[in-house]
Structures are given as C-alpha cells and as structure tokens.
Design a protein that fits this description.
Layout (H helix, E strand, L loop, with lengths): L3 H12 L2 E2 H18 L10 E3 L2 E3 L1 H7 L4 E2 L12 H14 L4 H10 L1 H7 L14 H17 L1
Length: 149
C-alpha cells in the first residue's frame, strides 16, 4: 500500500512545486475521495484535524520548516496503483487550481474536520484523527447529492 508521502510525491510530479499547506489539503482530498470512489484508503497514515485544516503528520514531518516543496523525501509515486493515480488526478482537476487558503476554508466548512476538532478551540493545536468512516460518510453524501441534482 502507498503512503501519504507517495501520494504527495505523485501530486508534486503532476503539479510541480506546491506550498505545503496546499499539498496537505490535496493529499487529504485524495484520501477522502478514494474512500468513496475506490471504497478503500490510498494510505493508512492518519490525518489529524489541525488548526489550518486536515494534516497528515507523517507528511508534515517530511516537509517541516518548508513553505514550498518540489519533492518529498522517501515519497515514491510508483507505489500508487493506476486506479489510485486516477483518483488523485481527478482531485487535482477539481481542487488543484484553487488557492491554499480556499482549500483551508473549504475543509473548515466540512463535517469530517469539524467533528474531529470537537471542542478544540479555533486556532488551537489539535491532534484528533479524522476517521476514514467520517470522510467516507460525508463525501459519499456529497456525491449522492450531486448525482440527484
């Protein structure tokens, strides 16, 4: 199975250098939509509900201290299957052109991040996990609503 580092590396290969905050959100949406479309996670690394939206701590450690990254140490895009790459490509098509701050604000409006934050005060540190079930339920409902409209 791929890791969040592998997904991030694939995103960078497709988009070029990207801010770390935007990369984190694209990795999150790749995981979320994989749970819906492929009915399984792309990676097992956890995603937490940090103040600026969903963050994969393992990926954060790989780019810590950087604003913009062009490569992820130990990230190997060849670990992704064809189906996983197709999922990420759709996420990049649908989310990739939006600014990082727009993606942060979008995640703040969505149930998985809000539920995982729980009682953590706005802007405060929080390491609560955004569960696969929460992501799958929320984004499946979005898809179902889109298909009926």
């Amino acid at each position: 199975m791929a890791t969040c580092l592998d997904v991030a590396q694939y995103i960078l290969e497709r988009r070029g250098p990207t801010t770390t905050i935007k990369l984190q959100k694209l990795v999150y949406y790749s995981q979320a939509w994989s749970l819906v479309w492929d009915e399984q996670p792309i990676f097992e690394d956890e995603i937490q509900a940090w103040a600026n939206g969903p963050v994969a701590p393992r990926l954060f450690q790989a780019h810590k201290g950087e604003f913009r990254v062009g490569q992820i140490p130990n990230g190997d895009s060849t670990n992704l299957t064809k189906a996983e790459k197709e999922t990420v490509d759709i996420v990049l098509r649908d989310y990739g052109e939006n600014p990082a701050q727009w993606l942060v604000e979008l995640t703040h409006l969505e149930t998985p991040w809000k539920e995982a934050r729980g009682t953590c005060p706005a802007g405060e540190s929080c390491n609560n996990v955004i569960t696969h079930a929460s992501m799958a339920d929320y984004y499946s409902a979005l898809l179902a609503n889109a298909e009926t409209n």
